[in-house]
Amino acid sequence: MGTILCPTRGGEASYRAQDAAIVLAREQNKMLIFLYVVDTHFLDRTERAVRPDVVSEEMSRMGEFLLAMAQERASKQGVHADARIRQGELREELLAAVRQEHSDVVVMGRPAGDQSAFRLAALEAFAAEIEQETGAAVHIVHGDEQSDSASDVEPDLSPGEEGEA
After folding, report:
1. What per-residue confidence (pLDDT) applies to 158?
2. Which of 8, 46, 139, 142 is the most exposed place for a label (fewest CB within 10 A)?
């Protein structure tokens, strides 16, 4: 039995990725873990007096809520899912989570527009990095709900297209 890791942030693409991960977990009888990463590195870009500890705490609370919603979605579909919150830089924490949870599959969503931290090409490169460094297969769930392994994703480099982790 393997483990599916599904990073989530609560956007529409996250819901599609969650649903795809839930179906995959049920079909393949795999453990499912939803992951939320509290990444406050964006605060480094401001000169305002901001308390990172307060922002981190609020983001953690939001993450707990989003993960509880994801677990509820899974439960309604007959799948038990665990939830994890990690703190740090998204790329590092996602790679560390894949290793720590012994995940053999990672399911990520890819929204269109400006809703994501990753442009499509960067998301595909990151997915390939995850596959190379961990051996886990990465599936990117597109807006039309199709899922592709990072190794055979057709690049869609249309202007304005972006992706999510």
Report:
1. 28
2. 46
CB 86 within 8 A of CB 38: yes
Structure token pair of residue 157: 């480099």
CB burial of residue 18 (10 Å; 0-12, 13-18, 19+)? buried
> For residues 31 and 84, is the Cβ–Cβ distance under 8 A?
no
Residue 16 tokens read as 């599609």
Cα→Cα distances 94→5, 46, 82, Å = 9, 25, 16
When divided into structural domains, the chain yields a total of 1
pTM: 0.79
Which residues in the chain come in under a pLDDT of 70? Answer: 43-44, 46-47, 49, 111-118, 143-165
